[in-house]
Amino acid sequence: MCGIVGYAGPSEASGRPLDVALDGLRRLEYRGYDSAGVALVTPGQGGVASAKKSGKLANLVEEIAAHPLPDATASIGHTRWATHGGPSDANAHPHLADDGRLAVIHNGIVENFATLRAELAADGATFLSETDTEVTAQLLAREYRAAGDLTAAMAATARRLTGTFTLLAVHADAPGTVVGARHDSPLVVGIGEGENFLGSDVAAFVAHTSEALELAQDQVVTITATSVDVTDFDGTPAEGKRFTVTWDAAAAEKGGFGSFMDKEIHDQPQAVADTLLGRSDAQGRLVLDEVRIEESVLRAVDKIIVVACGTAAYAGHVAKYAIEHWCRVPVEVELAHEFRYRDPIVDERTLVVAISQSGETMDTLMAVRHAREQGAKVLSIVNTHGSSIPRESDAVLYTHAGPEIAVASTKAFLSQITAAYLLGLYLAQLRGNKFPDEVGVLLDELRDMPRKVRTVIERGEYVRATARSMAESDKVLFLGRHVGYPVAMEGALKLKELAYIHAEGFAAGELKHGPIALIDSGQPVFVVVPSPHGRDQLHSKVVSNIQEIRARGARTLVIAEDGDDEVRAYADEIFWVPRAPSLMQPLLAVVPLQIFAMALAGAKGLDVDQPRNLAKSVTVE
Ligand code: M6R
After folding, report:
1. What distance in angstroms lies between residue 485's CA and the mean position of ligand 1's atoms?
2. Looking at the domain 3-251, which fold is it?
3. What's the CA-to-centroid distance between 370 and ligand 1, angstroms?
4. At CA 149, angle to CA 143 and CA 154, rounded to 5?
5. Per-residue b or e along 141-150, where b marks 16 or more CB atoms closer than 10 Å to that residue's CB
């Protein structure tokens, strides 16, 4: 939630600080788009200049074009997902204090803001907005008047705040300096040549440098053009952790597609292939060096709990079927925000697997902390380097999906399933549930999936045409069984968040226990049909379910495997996917559902990359 960018450049004022801030905001806008704003340090021009506007970044750009800002030496920029105070111009960041000489931007929620506001008001401060951020700006101004040093003032401010925050500040007295602080909210440093950067994530600065520094919790960072200094909140010097960003800026562009989501759907074969890459030895045997948890501990694990939210949780649901089947160890999947508050039974023999694209989802981060406090080992499956969840886990398995910018997750889902399958196979091998050659066969099946995913994408036009013809739908149901069940839930989530249509995913077998009452004439129902070659007669059971709903008037839209002639007779529309082993089918079956939701939202004239009320990275609980 909220995108933050900071830049410190040469002492000669220029247009670059503004350009870097606006470019960073453009790349971070997926984190929130209720308002946008910048502040520039403009030596010789009155100290600090700022502009802010409610709505999307385009409004700010228009505002600056109409009222140009002066050249500068440093900048901060903010794109907002509103928490305290609605999305108005007044509540937009930056917030100013110290007679307009200090500007502050913030991501997170300051929980003690009411107390602090009362304290500052009693001290004579006046407030122009309803935000908690303006309170931090006034507090920072007071600390600055006392300390005469922006870094020390930031540390003192941070010590007074409760809740979650990343703060960036510039002051007219420190023309080439940006100071930041973080507590339970993301902030990374970009190390340039003769210039340095700050960002909520590396997308903010990857166009300028791929060298980065990860900050730990509760640190203050001060950047100038030539220096990066890190301290703890008590002022003790500290070190960040250097890393190199492995994708380039082009990966975070649309690459000729009409939307990031469309591009990211097309990225999926590569995302799966890259997640598999480098994870086997010369003999093709699975090697997961990143799993830095002692083998004896992993052998002793008697329960796995997956914690995640949204799409990542559905990836966890899919993984449950595979891991239990391969490893014969019970797997629970828990929404991260429920896990921590229900007194879960967790101990040293529990392996908690946290799945998160952003690595910053606060609910998941809190679940990770809770699990570790209870003595469990935590392995995270994360896409974003330099983020909080891997840093707080015992081990991390990175997905290599590249940047996912569209708010609706697509390639993250496929790469999370892939990584979780690798983990499952690794555990099966380690615990002796599978011989290496059996693991090898399953790995080969996985390695064949990018090709099959590409085939599904190539068949997308029929899905798009169907979606366009259904733009007036107001309720769509999704059914699946076994691994098809989480796919159905993911299909429904895509449609809800992109097209604002009421959509529900059900276990097909559950239908007759209630939901079938929802079916009336013409009701669209997607059905994910298992492979006719799979086990347990699941295929025929789902075909029966299709007949039951069709008999009640449903319009059936069926995802079926190539050559499944039996289902043909019961489908109003069929979206064919290549033949694959049952456990691999989710990687294929979800793709038409993604394309359908995107196309239907497009047909309704909606913004598929930035759906209303949402933000990509949910960094508040
Ligand atoms: O970054 P994370 O994977 O932790 O995010 C979890 C969910 O917020 C995310 O998957 C969300 O549900 C997506 N918008 C769904 O498309």
Report:
1. 18
2. Glutamine Phosphoribosylpyrophosphate, subunit 1, domain 1 (3.60.20)
3. 20
4. 55
5. bbbbeeeebb
- Tell me how far the alpha carbon of residue 616 lies from the centroid of ligand 1, in angstroms: 7
Question: Using only C-alpha atoms, what is the Rg of the chain?
Answer: 25
The answer to whether domain 254-447 and domain 458-603 are alike in fold is: yes
**How many other CB atoms sit within 10 Å of the CB of residue 462?**
14
Per-residue pLDDT, 283? 73
> The sheet that has 163-171: what strands, in order across it?
95-97, 102-110, 163-171, 178-183, 219-223, 228-232, 237-238
Give the mean pLDDT of 365-382.
96
pTM, 2 dp: 0.85
- The atom of ligand 1 lying closest to the CA of 358 is 1
Tokens standing for residue 513 = 């226990």
Task: Based on the residue annotation, tell me whether 616 is a catalytic residue of this protein.
Answer: yes
Q: What is the mean pLDDT of the chain?
A: 93
CA distances from 294 to 291, 330, 351, 439 (A): 8, 20, 12, 21
Nearest to 413 by CA among 422, 424, 404, 423: 404
* 81 CA distance to ligand 1 middle (Å): 15
> Where residue 101 falls among pLDDT bands split at 50, 70, 90?
very high
Rounded distance, CA 23 to CA 190, Å? 14
Domain 254-447 has CATH 3.40.50.10490: yes
The two three-digit tokens of residue 253, written as one number: 């562009």
Asked about 475 being catalytic, the answer comes back as no
Q: Residue 478: which region, alpha, beta or left (left: phi > 0; alpha: psi -120 to 50)?
A: beta
Best mutation site among 81, 334, 381, 409 for ligand 1 pocket (most ligand atoms within 8 Å of CB): 409
311, 387, 389: residue to mutate for ligand 1 pocket, most atoms within 8 A of CB? 311
In angstroms, the CA 117 to CA 91 distance is 15
Ligand 1 pocket (Cβ < 6 Å) reads 309-312, 356-358, 361, 364, 407-409, 412, 493, 497, 617-618
pLDDT attached to residue 278: 87
- The whole-angstrom separation of Cα 257 and Cα 599 is 13
Which pLDDT belongs to residue 32? 83
- What CATH superfamily classification does 458-603 receive? Glucose-6-phosphate isomerase like protein; domain 1 (3.40.50.10490)
Q: Where are the beta strands (DSSP E) in 249-394?
A: 303-308, 331-335, 350-356, 377-382
List Cβ neighbours of 565 (8 Å cut-off, separation of 6 or more). none
pLDDT digits (tens, 9 = 90+) for 187-204: 999 999 999 999 999 989
Q: How far is the CA of 217 from the centre of ligand 1 (A)?
A: 22
Tokens of 598: 């995107």
| Domain boundaries defined on the chain | 3-251, 254-447, 458-603
Q: What is the residue with the minimal CA distance to atom 8 of ligand 1?
A: 310
